[in-house]
Design goal:
The structure is a homohexamer of 318-residue chains. With 318 residues, the first copy, chain A, is α+β, with helices and mostly antiparallel strands. Chain A has 10 helices and 9 strands. In chain A, the strands form 3 sheets. A 5-stranded mixed beta barrel of chain A has the order 1-2-3-5-4. A two-stranded antiparallel sheet of chain A has the order 6-7. In chain A, a hairpin with a 5-residue loop joins strand 1 and strand 2. Chains A and C meet through helix 7 of A and loops of C.
Chain lengths: 318, 318, 318, 318, 318, 318
């Protein structure tokens, strides 16, 4: 049996066998007017160009970006790069027991653990209306929430990133409400859980946690407006006090803080204000931590787009 | 019987009788520690300060700004201004047959006529879902829509100003869709009727069409977000196609065009784009026409706040 | 006789004959140190790279971008693309009876019809001075106005686009002045006709309606300032009332509305304000209509540069 | 002995005796050409106008705004307001045992307790250089730091406000570094303590914690630049590693985040980023809490200048 | 004969005689229903309120702001201020030999001297077309240019301020062209002389150099556009080369540099760029010098509006 | 002996010998898995790609960008471009007597002459403290200042550009202080010399005057803040008056004028204001002069990045 090879171990001339993620897929036409597929395949160690010269029925529909595949082929060198000529290809199946973490970035905790954090905080909410509204909204999305990222790119664009972002904010919000004791925890926890929940409707994500595109409604309305809609509907359904519904809607509406970032109003009570800081702070900490992981002591990272192209410095002293 | 006098005819020393609008009302304490009421009264001809030295039970609650009152009193001169000492005062009643136009600015057409224009265009909408949504929303507010202004101040801040603004936009939209024939009239007419409808929930207006303040929800969410909420609810109630609901919501969401004016997204289809122009154009035409009514030929108006403090010129030649 | 082939019908190996537009033309040097010409040729169906290996005297000057040529050659495949080796080449002549519409985008009405619309509205202007100024300015440019586009790229960048833009605005302005009856039609029609007229001096356009570049004066002053200059000169020549001249100049000066778009002043009377809306609205309707023509139902267009990179949505329902 | 009266208990005609704060003081000339002093006096219950008709030598220099005085006088009513005619006046002395809290707003903890918090965190800093630099800077200002406010107006503009702001941020930073464990606590605590320390040199404050004005250097350089200067000097004095000094300077430089708020650079490492959020969040929480203290349930506060004129809402439900 | 008294020497009770400038003039109605005039009079030493109780025919038209008058009256004290009761009043005549400098701010050189500077630089221009255009424009305004200020308020808002500003810029431009020797002096000097010349048509100024208002054309077009118009007309009249005219127009067009300050284009050649700096620098130097004249050593001036409200510091050391 | 060939004289097939500057250097791996070096070499006449197939020990470290090398090799043509195959390579040595001007852009005066200009102006400063501070700062950098450019790219990014920029500004400031005589020359000259001096610490420059990158401190603080630090340290060392130090620091702090360009404060005295204009003006004159050197009469330059992408026009008439 052939060894399952990682991409960075490929050498020209050898035959390989392994599981890879399709990063890009394109149908092209050869000089002999024959259709073939041109892929970029990836795993946790790197990427390689691959050609599939014999196209069968249904290949074009099956082998799309963000699919996990099993592949057999031969490696060759072409113009200084390695290339894989695919001989056999199929989608992975459950029995393959492929570990997603080997192919896509994932949050550092399991989805189950992070979801439990959210349930714990939900359990601490005393106000019935807030608890009911949050519960109603969560219960519609028990499945997709487990793998959804928090963004298409930028901060928390990893599998289960939405849970990761939300659960970290809950913990931080909990801590800060020990300092700023006048904050209403029910409102704060409820607002945190709901603030990005409509990203589930703004974006299309595969189970790998990779966003292919925004939904039509996501384009036309955006997750802030979509979030208000689901709170309104949930509030009506559970018969919540109108003010409670309105307060949660205001928190979602204002959490981006600036009109040019999608919030036409600014926070008008402290829990909404704090939600904004928790959100922004968690995103920035995520991005900076990530930038520093790839940076040497005494060096700057590349310019990070989501940090206004700032280059992040890793001190020599720490 | 005493003559019903207009304020600009008042002379020091005479006794008068008439109907006036309370513009401001304040309870003050005299140097002898007695409570009295200090008013500014107005009619179509001017304003005058008035004192009510004898306060009865309930006066403070009854005689509030924007009430129409019947008053008898004596005019005196004090520090170069005229002042009215009130002897008798009561709220007007139906039998007084007071004409609102004599006290507050009103739209140039009757509310009934303008509402009929809206119904006519509603009748021309062929798409069932759009027709049903608009109908559902209108039917909740048959009364208040008749007198509501379109703003607290600035454009169309007159009694029935909301109807005036909406019906003019419908007519203009109708005309322009003869030029730009690819526009969908159902969507355009529906969007126009709905675009400012949630002002009914954003502001508190007396039946005189004078806005005392924004509502709590108006402050926290604003009429754009409130408009989306009522469309969402109406859409669910009438079982409309999801895309239709979303298109109308997008039109309301984007009609202010710029984030800093409350629209976090820009129009993404032509009917939404046209709605924005019709709205903006109608507001600007209203403000300019009004500015010129008070301006002489060959002169500039005062700087108009809602026109970025522009001074409007009235040409000598026309 | 060879068939006149459209580019999208070319196949490797065949010999073709046809009329094409030179899109780009460059003189290059081959590895054997020989000068040759490298073209991109286009027609209504597509584009193809073409090489002319044998350069004659004058070729470099004759075969410049935006020329229509007759070509004979052989198609070959190179690195997956088709390429044309030119054997014979000449500029088209009248006798070829080439239809411009087959090569460049044109307005949907004939230049003659659109010019007639402008003359009709000119005929409706009652004010002698306005009529004379407009007439004076038009009469200087009877020829070039027939093919000039309204822009180098973006809205109305088609042959006769200037006439198309102006005549549509006249029709829309006419409609809206039935709603906003206080507008002075003489001023409005005059302002519309003149507002972009100096684009004739701002840009250099071939008779195909393709702008090669801005003129020196166009760069240094821009069509707004150039427009004021021609109105000033025309006003003096026809002995117009100074205020009339000034009003028309103000309309041209302010029609871009914002300083960063070239208008240092904002409109100070309603006809100037309306001119701005008509201009902006017509440009936006044009761009949106065009974007939707290439878009499927239920899909978004590409991001459109002139619409702030917005992607335009084509509803499924309409 | 006369009773020590609070201002809100004054009645016309009575003679009073008490301690008050001079809020404004002006020397005026009476109609009889005599110089007298016109004061606004205040205590924790309100304000009153007061006249001192007999001016002695040195009064003008002694009785300046923000002085605490002992006063005897007679209350009268004039034009509907009460007024105090001063008979005896002197500055307070230690023996009067006046409690500052009765006259000016103060932080909710004692200066000693809050300073101890800072010392505790200083004690937790392990890096010698950071500890030495912070220590050096603190040791120069043992006295003034006890009463200095954090601002002339806006957030933490109370006696000992600088200690209050700094110690709260240390506690919050401590909490958040339990969530974001990759943060270096030495750097974070050091940066927090130093970030506003140069306000001691930017503003002139009385011992009451009231800022009369900015210093000349405060005007010309500002506390961010002044802070960098004192870190540079302290760093050189204690012989700190150059990078450590630079990191602390960067934290001070960037803590306002935006150029238009005084930070020409943005944070380039996570501790600097976090410092900004802690600073901003603490200021906003302070302002919102304060706004809500004066607001009824279900009402909005006045527009708060330091919150971009936002009106803060106090929910009915909480 | 009565002494001619300066306002700061007035004492209650005395009768005075003198020349003053009318700063404000208003017709009011007394409590006895009699019309009277209420003035603010000023001279180089201060201002005083004055009443003219007996109004003759024509007074209202004659005694308008910015007129110089001879007055006799009696000084009295009222509510702590002095007031003048006018007994005799007349406009000044030539025989009074009043010196304007005693009443309004004037440039530090005589208009004749500054105009001569301009003529000297005009004489140094070698290019015929530039010289002719400048000459043509100057020759139209030989009179008004002598007293015109350069602004309504802000920099050089003094009698002959336009000459002062222009002549200083010429001197500075001359100096700098010795450093930047590639600058064309003809273009630079021509551009400087013309850059603000249309202020003569933008504003209405009395012979005292005080601007009462902008002209209609000044409002609608502004001095930049008006300047281009007069250059265009002059260029045609003297038959100048088209490029020369265009270059001068571009210099006027761009000298404010930023769209929001009125320049829709930025300078595109060095002489235009330099013109901008000379203009801006001269304005700023003027404003700063003026601010420091009223400031003590070691103190800040008031915030200066035209310097973005900056307060200017006068060093102790110099 | 082989001729020393300029790059623009290279022809395919010949063997050449010469001195060149390494512009880029990269180690690559050939298809046969061998490491080789790929260079871009340049001289005053052009650039060429070069390959060094045989890599010795230490080559990678020696032959880095911005090194001057002696090279022998053979020219070949490849895909229409020339390429150099390197046979021998070494770094230049003093004995080669290579003239830097042949390889990198340099200022038009010698470093020695420009440095003398600075010393002359330093000699004219009468104030002891200013003279001492400037002297102290200059004396630390006698070597590097001779070759440092004033920028990484844009204005004065040439060898000795810092001296060129500074000495030109001194001359211009001297001239203008003859016009604006109230300016303090000591402060102005001192401020000019110091304003960009910290660029020596912000950037790393080779002796060729080419900046490879910003320093860590340059990134984290920037030359404005670094400049304040060196003035503070120098001021303390020479025992300067605190106000003098502060004034110089304010000048450095404010010389970029706008927050978004790095100056958190605006100039608050005229010498600081003038410093800004001198700096800006000198940069712009440099960029425009350079742009015009590559432009034909009657043509526009390319868009210049440092001039907001403006294209600069070279008039036909001059």
């Amino acid at each position: 049996m052939l060894e399952l090879k990682k991409i960075n171990k490929f050498e020209a001339g050898e035959r390989i066998d392994g599981f890879y993620l399709i990063k890009t897929a394109e149908v092209k036409t050869s000089s002999t007017n024959k259709r073939y597929m041109d892929f970029t395949l990836g795993d946790s160690t790197g990427e390689i160009n691959a050609k599939l010269w014999e196209m069968n029925e249904g290949y074009e529909e099956d082998f799309v970006p963000n699919s996990l595949i099993k592949v057999r082929g031969v490696v060759s060198a072409w113009q200084g790069s390695l290339q894989l000529k695919i001989e056999k290809i199929r989608l992975t199946v459950k029995a393959d027991e492929v570990d997603i973490k080997d192919f896509v970035p994932v949050a550092p905790y399991t989805a189950e653990d992070m979801y439990q954090v959210i349930l714990d905080y939900l359990g601490r909410i005393k106000n019935k209306d807030i608890k009911n509204i949050v519960n109603e909204i969560l219960s519609n999305e028990l499945e997709r929430i487990m793998y959804f990222p928090a963004a298409k790119k930028n901060h928390h664009a990893v599998r289960s990133g939405l849970l990761y972002h939300t659960s970290t904010m809950l913990k931080a919000g909990d801590k800060l409400s020990e300092i700023y004791t006048f904050l209403n925890k029910d409102l704060l926890f409820g607002g945190i859980i709901l603030h990005d929940m409509a990203k589930l409707y703004e974006m299309d994500s595969s189970e790998l946690g990779i966003v292919s595109d925004y939904t039509i409604e996501g384009h036309l309305l955006g997750h802030i407006i979509q979030g208000i809609k689901i709170i309104e509907t949930a509030g009506e359904k559970v018969g919540a006090d109108k003010e409670i519904t309105m307060l949660l809607e205001h928190m979602v509406l204002t959490h981006h803080y600036e009109p040019e970032y999608g919030s036409p109003k600014k926070p008008m009570f402290p829990e909404a204000e704090m939600l904004h800081y928790l959100d922004n702070m968690d995103a920035k900490m995520y991005d900076m931590k990530k930038a520093l992981e790839d940076t040497e002591d005494g060096e700057f990272s590349e310019g990070i787009w989501s940090l206004d192209k700032r280059r992040i410095y890793k001190a020599r002293n720490f």
